């Protein structure tokens, strides 16, 4: 029977203070199904749970979920391309066990109490930075923040030296975002503590890829329950999705694929779990060379849209396009790019308008990693419409980042040195 992280937080803290070597963190049963059990980093496994009519043993036809903490054997999360399907599922299953924490009156669990997490953000961020800060706090960790404008990186210090200095102050984990691809790997090689990549250049954004997958599965499971699917096929489909088996699902990623680290993490995570991924955009933003990542590339959104189960709209990253008019969002003004003739033509060919959204199949969802450029890649009424799960993605991002921090910091404490 799988374990979970959480009982009542206040009672749990008292128990852990009294018996630090034998207690485990526990979470309430998640609405998707049975909870997952695993101990806090410094504790041992709890005693066997007594079986009753309300808590029967697993039957042969009911698979027993593996212990995510036992499956995960890395102190760093740098990307999804190098992870196995089992490791990705371990992260997602752990996130599921943390999901209900944000809905409780006391929004904390003591999983990382006494630990220190450093947020090193050398590139602009709103959602990701706040999400990691809140995730650390809900795990009861202390948090310190460092940005490029307030760091010695602006004085010429390398990211590796900055990380070594921060580690020397006694931190247990680092969350790093940087403009340069590979910056998180440089940091991971420079330090011995846990490192989580919050986005490095055009390379990867692993927690965004994970939360997109989590949201896709959550929406599909909720839709199947709402539709009241019956019979062996309905049950088997739900059981498959419940274990994050995405075979049979088709996901479209639309927009500036070539500039997107989110797209690369989504392609890696979705395909490893069995989904079909189609990347759509103009040839300059979705070149055929992307098929080497395991996806299919198309240039006609209208031909593909009616057949997909989810569409993930990406903004045009003008700041990464050379030769265009790089007006920042705060500065306003018209934007342009050498990658397509005009914003108007791009929206006509690849924007998710209300009319296009109406042609999507029943139950298909609309996602966006943010920030959105309303009226360019997505219409406002679609972003706020019934198919949209955009703000649910933000909510789920908190549980996913709690899972990433918990697994990486606890792995480092178990003596695991694998990056």
Care to give the gist of this entry?
This protein has helices at residues 9-18, 68-71, 85-98, 127-138, 159-168, 183-190, 206-227, 231-242, 261-272, 301-304, 343-350, 354-358, 380-383, 390-413; strands at residues 76-77, 116-121, 142-147, 173-178, 194-200, 250-254, 276-280, 296-298, 310-313, 365-367. It is of the alpha/beta class and 419 residues long. The longest helix is centred in the last third of the chain and has 24 residues, at 390-413.
Written overview of the protein:
Helices cover about 35% and strands about 10% of the residues. The chain has about 425 residues and is of the alpha/beta class. The strands form two sheets. It has a five-stranded parallel beta sheet, sandwiched between helices. A five-stranded parallel beta sheet has the order 8-7-6-9-10, with helices on one face.
* Largest sheet, spatial ordering of strands: 1-5-4-2-3
* SSE-based structural type: alpha/beta
Q: Report on the biggest sheet.
A: 5 strands, parallel
Number of strands: 10
Order of helices and strands: HHEHEHEHEHEHHEHEEHEHHEHH
Mean pLDDT: 84
Distance between the amino and carboxyl termini: 30 Å
Share of helical residues: 25-40%
**Radius of gyration based on Cα positions:** 22 Å
The dominant shape is globular
Percent in strands: 5-15%
Model regions low in confidence, pLDDT < 50 over at least 5 residues? 1-31, 33-64, 326-332
Number of helices: 14
């Amino acid at each position: 029977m799988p374990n979970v992280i959480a009982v009542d937080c206040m009672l749990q803290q008292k128990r852990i203070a009294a018996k630090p070597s034998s207690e485990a963190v526990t979470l309430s049963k998640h609405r998707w199904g049975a909870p997952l059990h695993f101990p806090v980093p410094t504790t041992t496994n709890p005693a066997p749970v007594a079986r009753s009519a309300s808590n029967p043993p697993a039957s042969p036809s009911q698979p027993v979920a593996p212990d995510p903490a036992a499956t995960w054997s890395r102190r760093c999360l740098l990307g999804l391309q190098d992870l196995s399907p089992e490791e990705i599922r371990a992260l997602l299953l752990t996130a599921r066990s943390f999901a209900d924490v944000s809905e409780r009156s006391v929004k904390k669990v003591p999983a990382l109490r006494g630990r220190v997490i450093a947020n090193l953000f050398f590139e602009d961020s709103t959602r990701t930075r706040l999400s990691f800060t809140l995730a650390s706090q809900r795990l009861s960790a202390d948090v310190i923040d460092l940005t490029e404008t307030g760091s010695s990186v602006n004085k010429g210090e390398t990211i590796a030296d900055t990380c070594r200095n921060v580690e020397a102050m006694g931190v247990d984990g680092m969350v790093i975002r940087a403009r340069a691809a590979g910056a998180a790997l440089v940091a991971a090689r420079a330090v011995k503590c846990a490192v989580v990549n919050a986005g490095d250049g055009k390379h990867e954004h692993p927690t965004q890829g994970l939360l997109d997958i989590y949201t896709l599965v959550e929406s599909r499971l909720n839709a199947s329950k709402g539709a009241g699917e019956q019979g062996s096929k309905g049950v088997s489909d739900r059981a498959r999705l419940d274990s994050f088996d995405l075979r049979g699902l088709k996901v479209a990623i639309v927009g500036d694929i070539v500039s997107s680290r989110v797209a690369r993490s989504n392609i890696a995570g979705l395909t490893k779990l069995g989904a079909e991924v189609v990347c759509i955009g103009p040839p300059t933003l979705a070149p055929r060379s992307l098929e080497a990542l395991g996806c299919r590339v198309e240039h006609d959104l209208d031909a593909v849209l009616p057949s997909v189960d989810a569409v993930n709209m990406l903004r045009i990253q003008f700041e990464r396009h050379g030769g265009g008019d790089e007006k920042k969002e705060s500065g306003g003004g018209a934007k342009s790019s050498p990658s397509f003739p005009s914003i108007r033509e791009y929206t006509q060919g690849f924007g998710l308008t209300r009319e296009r959204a109406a042609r999507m199949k029943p139950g298909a969802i609309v996602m966006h990693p943010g920030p959105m450029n309303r009226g360019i890649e997505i219409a406002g009424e679609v972003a706020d419409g019934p198919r949209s799960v955009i703000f649910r993605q933000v909510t789920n991002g908190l549980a996913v980042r709690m899972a990433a921090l918990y697994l990486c910091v606890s792995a480092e404490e178990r003596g695991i040195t694998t990056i």
